[in-house]
Design brief:
By secondary structure, this protein is an alpha/beta fold. It folds into four domains: 196 residues, P-loop containing nucleotide triphosphate hydrolases (Rossmann fold); 177 residues, P-loop containing nucleotide triphosphate hydrolases (Rossmann fold, 3-Layer(aba) Sandwich); 104 residues, Orthogonal Bundle (Arc Repressor Mutant, subunit A), CATH 1.10.10; 78 residues, HRDC domain (DNA polymerase, domain 1, Orthogonal Bundle), CATH 1.10.150. The chain has 25 helices and 17 strands. The strands form four sheets. It has a seven-stranded parallel β-sheet with strand order 3-4-2-5-6-1-7, with helices on both faces. The chain has a six-stranded parallel β-sheet with strand order 8-13-12-9-11-10, sandwiched between helices. The chain is globular and about 80 Å long. The two termini are 44 Å apart. The relative contact order is 0.10. Belongs to the helicase family. RecQ subfamily. It holds the Pfam family Helicase_C. It comes from Cohnella fermenti. InterPro entries: DEAD/DEAH_box_helicase_dom (IPR011545), DNA_helicase_ATP-dep_RecQ (IPR004589), DNA_helicase_ATP-dep_RecQ_bac (IPR006293), Helicase_ATP-bd (IPR014001), Helicase_C-like (IPR001650), HRDC-like_sf (IPR010997), HRDC_dom (IPR002121), HRDC_dom_sf (IPR044876). This is DNA helicase RecQ.
Length: 605
């Protein structure tokens, strides 16, 4: 591991490993398989990039998206590690040149789309080169129970017989339930792997859910308050993407759109403009983002609720990849549930898969309605102990007084029981409200003692309250297209008088105007004091150099490295080399120009 630490400083500019990295790297260097479940921004890529440098031969990295490959290869090249990629973006001539380079041993890492492993020409090449390690990125794609299953990932193990000897196998993903983890082990044939889960909590992210707000108004206000910061806005449909992008562009914001209805060239141009900071905001469907390596995304807003928590956390986790504070906001309305159910019904999945999708959607709805710590809710969903509240999320920082809703909860539980636990949320709310509804009369629910007992509460608020009771474990929903409300075990304590139900009254306008703990504008108190004027000057220098080199600005140095320069104000080569994120190759290429910019600034002051 001494060699690994020296390589970490030389190539990546860091003196110590992050949590989980050392365990995985040591296992791979000892020839053992590994499974790493590490949140976005935790440094998964170094876990296989560093062993690739130290092991003989060429490491293969199976990656799902072209954009990820290009970003990773650009970043490795900047650090002085020879790497390349082969995918459909290359011409036949470029592909042949790179294949010859692989055979000649010119690279240490080669990134591939899983479809490339179906090429007989490539499989024959594998028999002529040394492959000590195969790393599978976004490994959840191999599982049919994962949120982004890709059948092409099933063919990864097909390459093993073509290699002289079995390589070390390593699989990485940011999110995976226990079922998905086991699927990964089986389908990739990992042999007694070292398993590292560093925890799903992202300490730099502030999660929040805004319910029933005017979404367009909220979004406009939110992004304006974060002028100059990079952000992603996810919407459920192409039509929603188009409308959001046009609205924000009409406000004078630098905003692009990304969805499957655009041509490949249009999508590529928009993505490049975003990576290069020419666009401040991208409005996109979930077609955008998996593997996007842009480190300085400060916020992710979900304009619509995603289909499940795994997808949500993957997408939200694209904020704050550099470890700096990020914000993740979910704008929730009941109409989002209808949209996602439509997608499930229109899919060609079998009935078992659809039932699973409905279950996952119910979990997503519960998250959107819980009064518990949002970070803790996500951690528990993935099978970890929740621990203490995060203190950062919208629920933890909610200053509204708690209201005792025990009596209301008892009435709701009684209504569910008297309806024989066979009907949905909306009909339950109608009975409680005392609605003059044909279906209520059809089943004789207008004769129940609970009929109309909450008539002073709006149906919308009753639906919200029922969903909150579901989210907090007092009620549960069946896994079906039309889920049925049932009593959960936790309701027993309330009915027996041993537990109280506390809730915060939803005030839409206040929620719509709320701002997370991190505020806006990149102020110094988020990170410790630093010179913001110098920071902007270094950002300008970085953008100029990025244009010269033809790479995104964050590939040169991320925001955290620039901020540390502004805090330490290095005045010599030795001090500049001590800044985190500045390895040998990057200092040789850019260090002098940044050092001179800092010295010039200090002279001016």
């Amino acid at each position: 591991m001494d060699d690994a630490r020296r390589a970490l400083r030389r190539f990546f500019g860091y003196d110590s490993f992050r949590k989980g990295q050392e365990t995985i790297i040591q296992a791979l260097l000892e020839g053992r398989d590994a499974l790493g479940i590490m949140p976005t921004g935790a440094g998964k890529s170094i876990c296989y990039q560093l062993p690739a440098v130290l092991l003989p031969g060429i490491t293969l990295v199976v990656s799902p998206l072209i954009s990820l490959m290009k970003d990773q290869v650009d970043a490795l090249t900047e650090t002085g590690i020879p790497a390349t990629y082969i995918n459909s973006s290359l011409s036949a001539r470029e592909t042949s040149q790179r294949l010859r380079g692989i055979e000649d041993g010119r690279y240490k890492l080669v990134y591939l789309a899983p479809e490339r492993l179906e090429s007989e020409r490539f499989l024959e090449l594998l028999g002529r080169i040394e492959v000590p390690l195969v790393a599978v990125d976004e490994a959840h794609c191999v599982s049919q129970w994962g949120h982004d299953f890709r059948p092409s990932y099933m063919g990864i193990v097909r390459i093993l017989p073509y290699l002289g000897r079995r390589p070390i196998m390593a699989a990485f993903t940011a999110t995976a339930t226990d079922v998905v983890k086991e699927d990964i082990l089986v389908r990739l044939r990992l042999q007694a792997p070292v398993r590292v889960t560093t925890g799903y909590a992202r300490d730099n992210l502030a999660l929040s859910v805004v319910r029933n707000a005017d979404k367009r108004d909220f979004l406009a206000r939110y992004v304006r308050e974060r002028s100059g910061q990079s952000g992603i806005v996810y919407a459920a449909t192409r039509r929603e993407v188009e409308a959001c992008q046009q609205h924000l562009a009409g406000l004078g914001l630098r905003v692009g759109k990304y969805h499957a209805g655009l041509t490949e060239e249009e999508r590529s141009d928009v993505q490049d403009a975003f990576l290069k900071d020419d666009l401040q905001i991208i409005v996109a469907t979930n077609a955008f983002g998996m593997g996007i390596d842009k480190s300085n995304v400060r916020y992710v807003v979900h304009y619509n609720m995603p289909k499940n928590l795994e997808a949500y956390y993957q997408e939200a986790g694209r904020a704050g990849r550099d470890g700096e504070p990020g914000e993740c906001v979910l704008l929730y309305s009941a109409a989002d549930t209808v949209t996602q159910k439509f997608f499930i019904e229109q899919s060609e999945a079998d009935e078992e898969r659809k039932r699973n999708d409905y279950r996952l959607l119910n979990d997503m709805v519960e998250y959107a309605n819980t009064s518990d710590c949002l970070q803790r809710s996500i951690v528990r969903y993935f099978g970890e102990e929740g621990g203490e509240p995060c203190g950062r999320c919208g629920n933890c920082t909610d200053t509204r007084e708690l209201r005792d809703m025990t009596e209301e909860a008892k009435i709701i539980f009684s209504c569910v029981a008297r309806m024989r636990q066979r009907f949905g949320v909306t009909l339950t709310a109608k009975v409680l409200r005392g609605a003059n509804d044909a279906k209520v009369r059809q089943f004789g629910f207008d004769t129940l003692t609970v009929y109309g007992m909450m008539k002073t509460t709006s149906e919308k608020e009753l639906v919200r309250l029922i969903h909150e009771l579901i989210a907090d474990g007092y009620l549960k929903l069946t896994d079906s297209q039309y889920p049925v409300v049932q009593l959960a075990e936790r309701a027993r304590g309330v009915l027996e008088g041993t537990e109280r139900v506390m809730s915060r009254v939803e005030r839409i306008e206040e929620a719509a105007r709320s701002r997370s703990r991190y505020g806006s504008g990149g102020r110094g108190d988020q990170y410790g004091p630093y010179d913001e004027v110098l920071f902007e000057r270094l950002r300008e220098l970085r953008k100029k150099l990025a244009g010269r080199e033809g790479v995104p600005p964050f590939i040169i140095f991320n925001d955290a490295t620039l901020r540390e320069m502004c805090q330490q104000l290095p005045d010599s080569e030795a001090k500049m080399r001590g800044v985190k994120g500045i390895g040998e190759a990057k200092y040789a290429k850019y260090g002098t120009e940044f050092l001179e910019a800092i010295l010039d600034y200090k002279k001016e002051g």
